[in-house]
Amino acid sequence: MDKSLTTDNSIRSLSRVKTMNIDFPNPVGLAAGFDRDGELLSSFIPAGFGFIEIGTVNVNSTCNEGESLKKIINNIQHSKSSSENKTVIGVSLGSLRDTIDDNTVADYITGMELFWNCSDYLVINLSRPGSSMRDKSTINSELHLLLNKVKQSHSELCTRHGTYRPVIVKIAIEYKKSSLSLPETLTIALELQFDGLLLAFENWPSSDDIVTALGKVLLLTNKLPLIVVGGIKTASDVSKILSAGAVLVQCYTLFVDKTPEEINKTIVDLL
Ligand SMILES: Cc1cc2nc3c(=O)[nH]c(=O)nc-3n(C[C@H](O)[C@H](O)[C@H](O)COP(=O)(O)O)c2cc1C
């Protein structure tokens, strides 16, 4: 890794963002799935991301997964304490169950408890491909119940730990498909006082279409911080989506097969 990446703070002062009570060095983040276990953090933190989302960690509350989860926590703690650069680290939490029941709720709650201290924010991931949580028909019943219980536990954890940890919900919005309805999810997230919504736009033809969709969302609310991921490739995409009202963006595909130095250059170009 090029040493200059660890000392060059020029991109960090360009576009700081304060949202959800967190100072983000810049608005470009690494999306979940890229570094599931936090094993690449020591290379990715100096690369200049505004934030990095670890996971999705699919916790199973009915199994003893202590060792594998402890390893992820250690990776995050170690890279945070050994890096000169401060990067915001989120942890994406999931459940691999096919039904939404008390066990599913317990998976998310266990995940929040485990990653509370080592994360800067937590994500309730409802975007897993093929999962019933992406299904439009769940929105008004089970999903509301799930998110309600998750948010109640989140409040209890805040009290118990004496610290606030922002918690957001990630949903997938497939182009012209009947995935979860954005307005309804937005209403639930607002009502239950989540800290933000992470919108994964899937298979959208262009960032202009995403901008149009965001415009409609912002007519419903401009209060809830929106983070956008999906199809972002250029500085123009980033600037359009941020101008349309998103507070932060994430990319995945753009960083595939790139060295940390190439990632650093890509982030600089995006900003
Ligand atoms: C191989 C692969 C694995 C992924 N794993 C996850 C995951 O574990 N959790 C998650 O929330 N999203 C996951 N995603 C979705 C990404 O976070 C992101 O939403 C999606 O790739 C769209 O962004 P992009 O167009 O910049 O790639 C994954 C995507 C890919 C391609």
Polypeptide structure, described:
Helix 4 runs parallel beside helix 5 (142-161). The model is unreliable at 1-10 (pLDDT under 50). By secondary structure, the protein is α/β, with parallel strands linked by helices. The longest helix has 20 residues, at 142-161. The chain has an 8-stranded parallel beta barrel. It has one domain (4-270): Alpha-Beta Barrel (TIM Barrel). It contains 9 helices and 10 strands. Residues 31-33, 56, 92, 125, 127, 170, 200, 229-232, 251-254 line the site of flavin mononucleotide.
Provide the fold topology.
Elements lengths: L3 H4 L9 E3 L2 E3 L3 E3 L10 H4 L6 E8 L7 H17 L5 E7 L7 H14 L5 E5 L16 H20 L5 E8 L7 H10 L4 E7 L4 H14 L5 E4 L5 H9 L4 E4 L8 H11 L1
Parallel strand pairs: 3-4, 3-10, 4-5, 5-6, 6-7, 7-8, 8-9, 9-10
Antiparallel strand pairs: 1-2
Helix pairs in contact: 4-5
The structure holds flavin mononucleotide (FMN).
Radius of gyration: 18 Å
| Average pLDDT figure | 88
Q: Please summarize the sheet with the most strands.
A: 8 strands, parallel, barrel
Q: From the 3D structure, determine the CATH topology.
A: TIM Barrel
